[in-house]
Amino acid sequence: PYCDSDNVDATVDCVPCPANAFCSEGLLSCNENYILSAGRCVFDERVLENQPRLTRFLEDKAARHKGLLECDTSKEQSSFLDLATLRDEAMMYEVIDAAVFDNVWNSVLNSARSGELPSLEVHGEFLRAGHSLQPVLSVGCSLRFFLLSLVPYCAVVLLFVLGVFALRTVLARRQRQRQLVDETLAKVYEALQEVKQQQVNDGGGSTDAWMSVEHLRDHVIEASGHSKAHMLPVWKEVASRVSHDSRVHERERVVHGVSQPTWEWATQLLSPRSARRRSVMVRQQAEGSEGRSQQQQQQQQQQQ
Hints:
By secondary structure, the protein is of the alpha+beta class.
């Protein structure tokens, strides 16, 4: 028999209790993670062999549960896992050798309680993932987080596209307005020149060579086919250009008893007869220039 660990009496004929063991009433019991071999309690190497497998099993369970909590927006699930349920699953799936299961299980939990295993936290009869353990996300959850991560980039791209579209819209609107201003200005000049030409054709008689600005504005806006609200800014730009054009005289005149601004084309226009005469002279000059050019070419050919 073995000597009691708590009462060592030299007078009693017994075998001393070996190290890493507890003896009582002649019986020997090795400490946790130790087994009896040749009368001694030696460390059970199977514990070291099975600890990593059980640790990976518990870490996988805790990581998946942590990922489930991150994906669960309701926050109704507990962050803890029941150790009894985990123990039953580990035994059912034969994660480790059944002969050393209890020793390995207690060894891993003790390491987690003491802080030697930071990936796991044990609180009473419950287990949860430690701060160092990364969550394992499901495919659907990973896809959702990936799409959410793209939201800021999509927002930036969308804002950029909207900004480019808005800029192009503004530039196109300004281009159309400039084009409308040029067309309206051309119509104003055409109307003033037409009135001036009528006076020239009349020989400077009773025909007025000026036009009321308001009358001309209403006529041009109506003929444009656009609304008055759309054309008023255009007319404002046209009136500014005409006012700074030295070819047009602006003067206040009384029209139907009311003083109104008027425009008059100041540049002298040719009479029909003068215009025809000038056209003939231009044509003759062109013909003469062409004839001289032909003569010079003939002389060069003869010299060669």
